[in-house]
Specification:
This protein has 18 helices and 18 strands. The chain is α/β, with parallel strands linked by helices and about 500 residues long. About 40% of the residues are buried.
Length: about 500
Protein backbone atom coordinates (compact mmCIF):
# COMPACT_ATOMS: atom_id res chain seq x y z
CA UNK A 1 0.00 0.00 0.00
CA UNK A 2 1.55 3.32 -1.02
CA UNK A 3 1.99 6.13 1.52
CA UNK A 4 -0.87 8.29 0.18
CA UNK A 5 -3.38 5.46 0.35
CA UNK A 6 -2.16 4.35 3.78
CA UNK A 7 -2.61 7.93 5.00
CA UNK A 8 -6.16 8.09 3.61
CA UNK A 9 -7.16 4.69 5.00
CA UNK A 10 -5.73 5.22 8.47
CA UNK A 11 -6.51 8.91 9.06
CA UNK A 12 -9.94 10.07 10.27
CA UNK A 13 -11.71 12.67 8.11
CA UNK A 14 -11.43 15.40 10.74
CA UNK A 15 -7.67 14.89 10.94
CA UNK A 16 -7.28 14.90 7.15
CA UNK A 17 -9.14 18.20 6.79
CA UNK A 18 -7.38 19.78 9.79
CA UNK A 19 -3.98 18.87 8.30
CA UNK A 20 -4.97 20.52 5.02
CA UNK A 21 -6.06 23.69 6.81
CA UNK A 22 -2.55 24.00 8.23
CA UNK A 23 -1.18 24.27 4.67
CA UNK A 24 -1.13 27.51 2.69
CA UNK A 25 -3.17 26.90 -0.51
CA UNK A 26 -1.10 29.55 -2.32
CA UNK A 27 2.16 27.86 -1.34
CA UNK A 28 0.82 24.48 -2.46
CA UNK A 29 -0.29 25.75 -5.87
CA UNK A 30 3.11 27.41 -6.35
CA UNK A 31 4.74 24.05 -5.62
CA UNK A 32 2.44 22.42 -8.19
CA UNK A 33 3.51 24.99 -10.78
CA UNK A 34 7.19 24.30 -10.12
CA UNK A 35 6.67 20.53 -10.35
CA UNK A 36 4.82 20.90 -13.65
CA UNK A 37 7.55 23.06 -15.16
CA UNK A 38 10.14 20.48 -14.12
CA UNK A 39 8.23 17.25 -14.85
CA UNK A 40 5.49 17.92 -17.45
CA UNK A 41 7.01 18.52 -20.91
CA UNK A 42 3.87 20.06 -22.42
CA UNK A 43 3.46 22.56 -19.61
CA UNK A 44 7.08 23.66 -19.81
CA UNK A 45 6.65 24.25 -23.56
CA UNK A 46 3.32 26.02 -22.95
CA UNK A 47 4.88 28.48 -20.49
CA UNK A 48 7.94 29.11 -22.64
CA UNK A 49 5.75 29.65 -25.74
CA UNK A 50 4.31 32.66 -23.94
CA UNK A 51 7.78 34.11 -23.41
CA UNK A 52 7.80 33.35 -19.70
CA UNK A 53 10.88 32.39 -17.76
CA UNK A 54 9.60 29.88 -15.15
CA UNK A 55 12.32 30.97 -12.72
CA UNK A 56 10.65 34.38 -12.55
CA UNK A 57 7.43 32.95 -11.09
CA UNK A 58 8.55 33.32 -7.51
CA UNK A 59 5.43 34.63 -5.74
CA UNK A 60 1.70 34.07 -5.82
CA UNK A 61 0.85 37.50 -7.31
CA UNK A 62 3.16 36.69 -10.25
CA UNK A 63 1.60 33.21 -10.52
CA UNK A 64 -1.78 34.91 -11.05
CA UNK A 65 -0.43 36.45 -14.26
CA UNK A 66 0.35 33.08 -15.86
CA UNK A 67 -1.64 32.28 -19.02
CA UNK A 68 -4.82 30.27 -18.61
CA UNK A 69 -4.84 26.69 -19.83
CA UNK A 70 -7.84 25.82 -21.99
CA UNK A 71 -8.95 22.71 -23.79
CA UNK A 72 -8.06 24.36 -27.11
CA UNK A 73 -4.69 25.94 -26.31
CA UNK A 74 -3.34 23.11 -24.17
CA UNK A 75 -5.30 19.85 -24.03
CA UNK A 76 -5.77 19.62 -27.79
CA UNK A 77 -2.46 21.30 -28.64
CA UNK A 78 -0.04 18.83 -27.01
CA UNK A 79 0.16 15.02 -27.19
CA UNK A 80 -1.46 13.25 -24.24
CA UNK A 81 1.71 11.66 -22.79
CA UNK A 82 3.49 15.02 -22.77
CA UNK A 83 0.71 16.47 -20.61
CA UNK A 84 1.38 13.83 -17.93
CA UNK A 85 4.00 13.86 -15.19
CA UNK A 86 7.21 12.40 -16.60
CA UNK A 87 5.95 12.78 -20.15
CA UNK A 88 4.47 9.29 -20.02
CA UNK A 89 1.22 7.43 -19.35
CA UNK A 90 3.10 4.93 -17.18
CA UNK A 91 1.97 6.57 -13.95
CA UNK A 92 -1.72 6.22 -14.82
CA UNK A 93 -3.87 3.16 -14.30
CA UNK A 94 -7.33 4.29 -15.47
CA UNK A 95 -8.90 6.67 -17.97
CA UNK A 96 -12.11 8.62 -18.45
CA UNK A 97 -13.51 10.40 -21.50
CA UNK A 98 -15.22 13.77 -21.46
CA UNK A 99 -18.58 14.02 -23.19
CA UNK A 100 -17.28 16.16 -26.02
CA UNK A 101 -20.33 18.44 -25.78
CA UNK A 102 -18.20 21.42 -26.76
CA UNK A 103 -16.19 19.67 -29.45
CA UNK A 104 -13.75 16.79 -29.67
CA UNK A 105 -13.93 14.25 -26.82
CA UNK A 106 -10.90 14.33 -24.54
CA UNK A 107 -9.19 11.48 -22.68
CA UNK A 108 -8.29 12.02 -19.04
CA UNK A 109 -5.90 9.42 -17.58
CA UNK A 110 -5.56 9.31 -13.81
CA UNK A 111 -4.27 7.09 -11.06
CA UNK A 112 -5.72 5.66 -7.87
CA UNK A 113 -3.35 7.86 -5.86
CA UNK A 114 -4.76 11.09 -7.28
CA UNK A 115 -8.26 9.71 -6.80
CA UNK A 116 -7.81 9.83 -3.03
CA UNK A 117 -8.31 13.60 -2.96
CA UNK A 118 -11.69 13.05 -4.59
CA UNK A 119 -12.52 10.21 -2.20
CA UNK A 120 -12.28 12.75 0.63
CA UNK A 121 -15.14 14.70 -0.95
CA UNK A 122 -17.26 11.53 -0.95
CA UNK A 123 -16.20 10.88 2.62
CA UNK A 124 -17.42 14.32 3.65
CA UNK A 125 -20.85 13.53 2.25
CA UNK A 126 -21.09 10.01 3.68
CA UNK A 127 -19.63 11.01 7.07
CA UNK A 128 -21.05 14.48 7.71
CA UNK A 129 -24.44 14.16 6.01
CA UNK A 130 -25.32 10.45 6.07
CA UNK A 131 -23.37 9.32 9.18
CA UNK A 132 -22.30 6.25 7.24
CA UNK A 133 -19.51 5.59 9.74
CA UNK A 134 -22.29 4.55 12.17
CA UNK A 135 -24.91 3.07 9.84
CA UNK A 136 -24.63 0.09 7.52
CA UNK A 137 -25.00 1.54 4.04
CA UNK A 138 -25.86 0.18 0.61
CA UNK A 139 -24.40 2.55 -2.02
CA UNK A 140 -26.09 2.11 -5.40
CA UNK A 141 -24.19 3.69 -8.29
CA UNK A 142 -26.79 4.87 -10.84
CA UNK A 143 -24.43 6.82 -13.09
CA UNK A 144 -23.72 5.33 -16.51
CA UNK A 145 -20.80 2.90 -16.38
CA UNK A 146 -18.09 2.68 -19.03
CA UNK A 147 -15.63 5.31 -20.23
CA UNK A 148 -17.66 8.21 -18.84
CA UNK A 149 -16.28 9.66 -15.68
CA UNK A 150 -19.31 9.53 -13.38
CA UNK A 151 -19.98 5.85 -12.82
CA UNK A 152 -16.51 4.35 -12.49
CA UNK A 153 -15.13 7.32 -10.55
CA UNK A 154 -18.04 7.14 -8.09
CA UNK A 155 -17.75 3.39 -7.65
CA UNK A 156 -14.01 3.60 -7.08
CA UNK A 157 -14.31 6.33 -4.42
CA UNK A 158 -17.06 4.42 -2.63
CA UNK A 159 -14.87 1.31 -2.64
CA UNK A 160 -12.13 3.41 -1.02
CA UNK A 161 -14.53 4.34 1.79
CA UNK A 162 -15.50 0.71 2.30
CA UNK A 163 -11.83 -0.22 2.55
CA UNK A 164 -11.32 2.59 5.05
CA UNK A 165 -13.74 0.83 7.36
CA UNK A 166 -17.12 2.34 6.57
CA UNK A 167 -19.75 -0.44 6.84
CA UNK A 168 -20.65 -0.05 3.18
CA UNK A 169 -21.51 -2.34 0.29
CA UNK A 170 -21.22 -0.84 -3.20
CA UNK A 171 -23.56 -2.04 -5.96
CA UNK A 172 -22.99 -0.95 -9.57
CA UNK A 173 -26.16 -1.42 -11.65
CA UNK A 174 -25.36 1.76 -13.58
CA UNK A 175 -28.26 3.52 -15.28
CA UNK A 176 -30.28 0.33 -15.77
CA UNK A 177 -33.53 0.83 -13.85
CA UNK A 178 -34.47 -2.84 -13.77
CA UNK A 179 -31.09 -3.72 -12.24
CA UNK A 180 -31.36 -0.85 -9.75
CA UNK A 181 -34.76 -2.12 -8.59
CA UNK A 182 -33.43 -5.66 -8.28
CA UNK A 183 -30.53 -4.43 -6.13
CA UNK A 184 -32.83 -2.38 -3.92
CA UNK A 185 -35.38 -5.15 -3.44
CA UNK A 186 -32.81 -7.84 -2.69
CA UNK A 187 -30.17 -5.96 -0.72
CA UNK A 188 -31.64 -2.84 0.88
CA UNK A 189 -33.49 -4.75 3.65
CA UNK A 190 -30.10 -5.83 5.03
CA UNK A 191 -28.86 -2.23 5.51
CA UNK A 192 -29.81 0.69 7.69
CA UNK A 193 -29.78 3.10 4.75
CA UNK A 194 -29.57 3.04 0.95
CA UNK A 195 -27.76 5.74 -1.02
CA UNK A 196 -28.64 6.34 -4.68
CA UNK A 197 -25.90 8.17 -6.61
CA UNK A 198 -26.70 9.58 -10.07
CA UNK A 199 -27.73 12.48 -12.28
CA UNK A 200 -30.68 14.37 -10.74
CA UNK A 201 -33.30 13.75 -13.47
CA UNK A 202 -32.40 10.06 -13.65
CA UNK A 203 -32.52 9.58 -9.88
CA UNK A 204 -35.99 11.16 -9.86
CA UNK A 205 -37.04 8.80 -12.66
CA UNK A 206 -35.75 5.86 -10.60
CA UNK A 207 -37.70 7.00 -7.54
CA UNK A 208 -40.95 7.57 -9.46
CA UNK A 209 -40.71 4.38 -11.51
CA UNK A 210 -39.72 2.36 -8.45
CA UNK A 211 -42.71 3.65 -6.50
CA UNK A 212 -44.97 2.71 -9.43
CA UNK A 213 -43.53 -0.83 -9.24
CA UNK A 214 -44.26 -1.12 -5.55
CA UNK A 215 -40.95 -0.11 -3.93
CA UNK A 216 -41.58 1.54 -0.58
CA UNK A 217 -38.66 3.97 -0.63
CA UNK A 218 -39.25 5.26 2.87
CA UNK A 219 -38.68 1.82 4.38
CA UNK A 220 -35.12 1.80 2.98
CA UNK A 221 -34.12 5.14 4.59
CA UNK A 222 -32.78 6.45 1.27
CA UNK A 223 -30.16 9.16 0.82
CA UNK A 224 -29.30 10.79 -2.50
CA UNK A 225 -26.03 11.96 -4.10
CA UNK A 226 -26.29 14.05 -7.27
CA UNK A 227 -23.89 15.46 -9.85
CA UNK A 228 -24.01 16.99 -13.29
CA UNK A 229 -26.91 19.47 -13.19
CA UNK A 230 -28.14 22.46 -11.23
CA UNK A 231 -31.54 21.88 -9.62
CA UNK A 232 -33.88 24.00 -7.55
CA UNK A 233 -34.62 23.67 -3.85
CA UNK A 234 -38.26 23.07 -4.80
CA UNK A 235 -37.04 20.04 -6.74
CA UNK A 236 -35.01 18.82 -3.74
CA UNK A 237 -38.10 19.14 -1.53
CA UNK A 238 -40.30 17.36 -4.07
CA UNK A 239 -37.92 14.41 -4.45
CA UNK A 240 -37.40 14.34 -0.70
CA UNK A 241 -41.12 14.01 -0.11
CA UNK A 242 -41.25 11.04 -2.48
CA UNK A 243 -38.62 9.15 -0.50
CA UNK A 244 -39.97 10.12 2.92
CA UNK A 245 -37.14 12.52 3.73
CA UNK A 246 -37.62 14.66 6.82
CA UNK A 247 -34.19 16.34 6.83
CA UNK A 248 -33.41 17.89 3.41
CA UNK A 249 -30.04 19.30 4.48
CA UNK A 250 -28.79 15.85 5.55
CA UNK A 251 -30.60 13.45 3.22
CA UNK A 252 -29.04 14.58 -0.09
CA UNK A 253 -25.91 16.25 -1.42
CA UNK A 254 -24.73 17.41 -4.82
CA UNK A 255 -21.16 17.13 -6.09
CA UNK A 256 -19.52 19.66 -8.39
CA UNK A 257 -17.33 17.59 -10.67
CA UNK A 258 -15.75 17.54 -14.11
CA UNK A 259 -13.98 14.88 -16.14
CA UNK A 260 -10.77 16.92 -16.16
CA UNK A 261 -10.64 17.88 -12.48
CA UNK A 262 -12.58 15.15 -10.69
CA UNK A 263 -14.88 16.27 -7.87
CA UNK A 264 -14.06 19.90 -7.16
CA UNK A 265 -16.41 20.50 -4.24
CA UNK A 266 -19.45 19.10 -2.45
CA UNK A 267 -22.63 20.30 -0.87
CA UNK A 268 -22.65 20.18 2.90
CA UNK A 269 -25.59 20.50 5.32
CA UNK A 270 -24.41 24.09 5.86
CA UNK A 271 -24.28 24.99 2.16
CA UNK A 272 -27.69 23.38 1.56
CA UNK A 273 -29.22 25.29 4.47
CA UNK A 274 -27.83 28.54 3.06
CA UNK A 275 -29.12 27.73 -0.42
CA UNK A 276 -32.58 26.89 0.90
CA UNK A 277 -32.65 30.18 2.80
CA UNK A 278 -31.55 32.02 -0.37
CA UNK A 279 -34.29 30.30 -2.38
CA UNK A 280 -36.80 32.00 -0.08
CA UNK A 281 -34.97 35.34 -0.20
CA UNK A 282 -34.38 36.07 -3.91
CA UNK A 283 -33.23 39.65 -3.24
CA UNK A 284 -30.45 38.32 -1.02
CA UNK A 285 -29.54 35.71 -3.64
CA UNK A 286 -29.26 38.39 -6.33
CA UNK A 287 -26.98 40.43 -4.09
CA UNK A 288 -24.72 37.47 -3.34
CA UNK A 289 -24.57 35.90 -6.80
CA UNK A 290 -25.28 38.88 -9.07
CA UNK A 291 -27.93 37.01 -11.06
CA UNK A 292 -31.61 36.12 -10.85
CA UNK A 293 -31.01 32.39 -10.72
CA UNK A 294 -29.81 30.11 -7.97
CA UNK A 295 -26.49 28.34 -8.65
CA UNK A 296 -25.13 25.18 -7.13
CA UNK A 297 -23.38 26.19 -3.90
CA UNK A 298 -20.68 23.87 -2.54
CA UNK A 299 -17.76 24.00 -0.15
CA UNK A 300 -14.28 23.02 -1.31
CA UNK A 301 -10.79 22.35 0.02
CA UNK A 302 -8.38 24.87 -1.57
CA UNK A 303 -5.39 22.61 -0.91
CA UNK A 304 -7.03 19.93 -3.08
CA UNK A 305 -8.67 22.06 -5.79
CA UNK A 306 -7.42 25.64 -5.98
CA UNK A 307 -9.95 28.05 -7.51
CA UNK A 308 -9.56 31.48 -9.06
CA UNK A 309 -12.01 33.53 -11.11
CA UNK A 310 -11.63 35.12 -14.55
CA UNK A 311 -14.39 37.39 -15.89
CA UNK A 312 -17.01 35.67 -13.70
CA UNK A 313 -15.88 32.21 -14.79
CA UNK A 314 -13.95 29.60 -12.84
CA UNK A 315 -10.28 28.65 -13.10
CA UNK A 316 -8.90 25.62 -11.24
CA UNK A 317 -5.48 24.18 -10.43
CA UNK A 318 -5.16 20.57 -9.31
CA UNK A 319 -2.64 17.75 -9.11
CA UNK A 320 -3.75 14.90 -11.39
CA UNK A 321 -2.05 12.55 -13.81
CA UNK A 322 -2.69 15.40 -16.26
CA UNK A 323 -2.09 18.26 -13.83
CA UNK A 324 -4.06 21.47 -14.18
CA UNK A 325 -2.41 24.85 -13.65
CA UNK A 326 -4.83 27.76 -14.01
CA UNK A 327 -7.14 25.66 -16.17
CA UNK A 328 -10.15 27.60 -17.46
CA UNK A 329 -13.11 25.27 -17.02
CA UNK A 330 -15.42 28.01 -18.38
CA UNK A 331 -18.21 27.43 -15.87
CA UNK A 332 -19.87 30.66 -14.81
CA UNK A 333 -19.57 31.16 -11.09
CA UNK A 334 -17.59 32.69 -8.27
CA UNK A 335 -15.98 32.26 -4.87
CA UNK A 336 -16.97 33.27 -1.33
CA UNK A 337 -14.76 32.74 1.71
CA UNK A 338 -16.14 31.10 4.85
CA UNK A 339 -15.88 34.41 6.69
CA UNK A 340 -17.42 36.20 3.71
CA UNK A 341 -20.51 33.98 3.72
CA UNK A 342 -21.06 34.66 7.41
CA UNK A 343 -20.59 38.41 6.92
CA UNK A 344 -23.20 38.32 4.16
CA UNK A 345 -25.63 36.27 6.25
CA UNK A 346 -25.16 38.58 9.24
CA UNK A 347 -25.99 41.54 7.00
CA UNK A 348 -29.33 39.88 6.24
CA UNK A 349 -30.09 39.06 9.87
CA UNK A 350 -28.87 35.45 9.92
CA UNK A 351 -26.58 35.11 12.91
CA UNK A 352 -26.44 31.39 13.64
CA UNK A 353 -26.94 27.98 12.10
CA UNK A 354 -30.24 27.82 13.97
CA UNK A 355 -31.44 30.82 11.93
CA UNK A 356 -30.88 28.64 8.84
CA UNK A 357 -32.95 25.78 10.26
CA UNK A 358 -30.03 23.65 11.41
CA UNK A 359 -29.62 22.34 14.93
CA UNK A 360 -28.31 25.07 17.23
CA UNK A 361 -25.16 23.09 18.09
CA UNK A 362 -24.37 22.09 14.48
CA UNK A 363 -20.75 22.96 13.67
CA UNK A 364 -20.09 23.71 9.98
CA UNK A 365 -16.69 23.04 8.51
CA UNK A 366 -14.52 26.11 7.97
CA UNK A 367 -14.12 25.71 4.21
CA UNK A 368 -14.64 28.29 1.44
CA UNK A 369 -17.50 28.22 -1.06
CA UNK A 370 -17.66 28.03 -4.85
CA UNK A 371 -20.90 28.68 -6.71
CA UNK A 372 -21.58 27.40 -10.22
CA UNK A 373 -24.23 28.44 -12.72
CA UNK A 374 -23.02 26.41 -15.68
CA UNK A 375 -22.51 27.73 -19.18
CA UNK A 376 -23.55 31.32 -19.93
CA UNK A 377 -25.04 30.59 -23.35
CA UNK A 378 -28.08 28.75 -21.99
CA UNK A 379 -30.18 31.90 -21.56
CA UNK A 380 -32.86 33.45 -23.74
CA UNK A 381 -33.15 37.21 -24.16
CA UNK A 382 -36.75 38.48 -24.11
CA UNK A 383 -37.46 42.23 -24.17
CA UNK A 384 -33.90 42.72 -22.93
CA UNK A 385 -34.38 40.43 -19.93
CA UNK A 386 -32.21 37.35 -19.53
CA UNK A 387 -34.54 34.40 -18.95
CA UNK A 388 -32.75 31.52 -17.24
CA UNK A 389 -33.86 27.89 -17.46
CA UNK A 390 -33.39 27.70 -13.69
CA UNK A 391 -36.24 30.21 -13.23
CA UNK A 392 -38.59 28.21 -15.46
CA UNK A 393 -37.68 25.00 -13.63
CA UNK A 394 -39.03 26.36 -10.34
CA UNK A 395 -42.36 27.07 -12.01
CA UNK A 396 -42.62 23.49 -13.27
CA UNK A 397 -41.55 21.89 -10.01
CA UNK A 398 -44.70 22.66 -8.09
CA UNK A 399 -46.40 19.65 -6.53
CA UNK A 400 -49.52 19.47 -8.73
CA UNK A 401 -47.69 20.21 -11.98
CA UNK A 402 -45.10 17.48 -11.47
CA UNK A 403 -47.92 14.94 -11.68
CA UNK A 404 -48.19 15.86 -15.38
CA UNK A 405 -44.66 16.66 -16.58
CA UNK A 406 -41.16 15.17 -16.57
CA UNK A 407 -39.47 18.49 -15.76
CA UNK A 408 -37.84 18.79 -19.19
CA UNK A 409 -38.66 21.78 -21.37
CA UNK A 410 -37.30 23.89 -24.22
CA UNK A 411 -37.27 27.67 -23.79
CA UNK A 412 -37.27 29.95 -26.83
CA UNK A 413 -38.64 33.22 -28.19
CA UNK A 414 -40.98 33.24 -31.15
CA UNK A 415 -42.78 35.82 -33.25
CA UNK A 416 -46.56 35.97 -33.16
CA UNK A 417 -48.83 36.81 -36.09
CA UNK A 418 -48.46 40.58 -35.65
CA UNK A 419 -44.66 40.40 -35.56
CA UNK A 420 -44.36 40.75 -31.80
CA UNK A 421 -42.21 38.56 -29.56
CA UNK A 422 -43.57 35.91 -27.24
CA UNK A 423 -41.93 33.55 -24.79
CA UNK A 424 -42.54 29.97 -25.87
CA UNK A 425 -41.94 26.95 -23.64
CA UNK A 426 -42.31 23.39 -24.92
CA UNK A 427 -42.99 21.14 -21.92
CA UNK A 428 -42.56 17.36 -21.96
CA UNK A 429 -45.48 15.36 -20.57
CA UNK A 430 -45.00 12.21 -18.53
CA UNK A 431 -45.63 8.89 -20.32
CA UNK A 432 -49.35 8.24 -20.49
CA UNK A 433 -50.36 11.86 -19.88
CA UNK A 434 -52.47 13.31 -22.68
CA UNK A 435 -52.60 17.05 -23.47
CA UNK A 436 -55.56 18.60 -21.66
CA UNK A 437 -56.91 22.11 -22.07
CA UNK A 438 -56.64 22.79 -18.34
CA UNK A 439 -52.95 21.88 -18.08
CA UNK A 440 -51.27 24.55 -20.23
CA UNK A 441 -52.82 27.60 -18.47
CA UNK A 442 -51.93 26.22 -15.04
CA UNK A 443 -48.31 25.68 -16.13
CA UNK A 444 -48.10 29.12 -17.77
CA UNK A 445 -49.40 30.85 -14.64
CA UNK A 446 -47.01 28.96 -12.38
CA UNK A 447 -43.99 29.80 -14.54
CA UNK A 448 -45.00 33.48 -14.77
CA UNK A 449 -45.45 33.64 -10.98
CA UNK A 450 -41.97 32.27 -10.36
CA UNK A 451 -40.35 34.47 -13.03
CA UNK A 452 -41.89 37.53 -11.38
CA UNK A 453 -40.65 36.38 -7.97
CA UNK A 454 -37.15 35.36 -8.97
CA UNK A 455 -36.16 37.46 -11.99
CA UNK A 456 -36.23 41.23 -11.48
CA UNK A 457 -35.43 41.83 -15.17
CA UNK A 458 -38.52 39.85 -16.16
CA UNK A 459 -40.65 41.84 -13.71
CA UNK A 460 -39.36 45.23 -14.81
CA UNK A 461 -38.41 44.95 -18.49
CA UNK A 462 -41.29 42.99 -19.96
CA UNK A 463 -44.71 44.60 -20.58
CA UNK A 464 -47.41 43.06 -18.43
CA UNK A 465 -49.33 41.83 -21.47
CA UNK A 466 -46.24 39.94 -22.73
CA UNK A 467 -45.36 38.21 -19.46
CA UNK A 468 -47.56 35.13 -19.79
CA UNK A 469 -45.59 32.43 -21.65
CA UNK A 470 -47.10 30.33 -24.40
CA UNK A 471 -47.01 26.66 -23.40
CA UNK A 472 -46.90 23.76 -25.85
CA UNK A 473 -47.55 20.32 -24.34
CA UNK A 474 -45.24 17.82 -26.03
CA UNK A 475 -45.54 14.01 -25.79
CA UNK A 476 -42.88 12.09 -23.89
CA UNK A 477 -39.60 11.57 -25.85
CA UNK A 478 -40.80 13.60 -28.83
CA UNK A 479 -37.93 13.49 -31.34
CA UNK A 480 -38.29 17.16 -32.28
CA UNK A 481 -37.91 18.52 -28.75
CA UNK A 482 -36.92 15.66 -26.45
CA UNK A 483 -35.03 13.02 -28.46
CA UNK A 484 -34.00 10.07 -26.28
CA UNK A 485 -30.35 9.16 -25.86
CA UNK A 486 -28.83 12.64 -26.22
CA UNK A 487 -28.03 15.32 -23.68
CA UNK A 488 -31.01 17.63 -23.36
CA UNK A 489 -30.71 21.37 -24.09
CA UNK A 490 -33.16 23.59 -22.24
CA UNK A 491 -32.94 26.52 -24.63
CA UNK A 492 -33.30 26.97 -28.35
CA UNK A 493 -31.95 30.13 -29.98
CA UNK A 494 -33.69 31.63 -32.98
CA UNK A 495 -31.53 32.01 -36.14
Amino acid sequence: MNDARQNFISTPLDTLLAANQAISPEDKVMTLFQCCVAEVPAYRQFVESHGINPAGISSYPVFQELPLMTKANYMLAYPLPERCFGGSLNGSDRVAVSSGSTGQPTFWPRSATYELDVAVRFEQVFHDSFRAQERSTLAVVCFALGNWVGGMFTASCCWQLAQKGYPMLVATPGNNKAEIFRVVRELSPYFEQTVLLGYPPFVKDVIDAGAAEGIDWGSHKPKLVFAGEVFSEEWRSLVGQRIGSTSPCFDSASLYGTADGGVLGNETPFSIAIRRWLANHPDAARQLFGESRLPTLVQYDPTSRFFETHNDTLVVSAENSVPLVRYHIADNGGLVSYGGIWAFLNEWGVNSCADLGLDKDYQPRNLPFVFVFGRADFTVSYYGANIYPENVTVGLEQQAIMAWVTGKFVLETQENSDGGKLLHIAVELLPGIEPDEIIAPVIADSIRTQLLRLNSEFANYIPHERQMPKISLIPFADPGYFPPGVKHRYTRKQP
